[in-house]
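Researcher: Re-running this chain for the archive, since the previous output was lost when a drive failed. Same request as before.
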Amino acid sequence: MLSYDSFLYQKPKKYFILVSLIGLILITIIIILCSIKSYDIQKINGFIECERACIVKINVIPEDVNLLNVAEFIKINDKKYSYEILAISDIDIDYHHMINYQTLTLKINLDKQIRQNNLVVDIHIHSNKEPLMKKIIEKFIGKEE
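Model: Regenerated structure tokens:
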């Protein structure tokens, strides 16, 4: 039988330390994933026209038109810009690719470096800022709609 003194002075098992370390690492990763927030990002090409003010025209499918209404900002050449939606066209048909699209006209205050007329740029639309852990769970489980 083990006495009280021998119980107090037992060395911890090697596996206990390993399991504790792995548990601590997992808890740390979960805390980090819950604290980091990320955006949904959609990449679209846009056409810049600058006369007095710069206007960007983009073509999106009709389901994505609402995306710009809820987006927080857009990025052009890795720089954030706020925007204002000036016009949304009627639904057009691209017969070559067999898709529907709408042309959105955005007003943006661009830097002098980008203020070139008739320039095609990559636009990243940032929307739906949520914790990264929630996005991972939704990816594995699936969105409930």
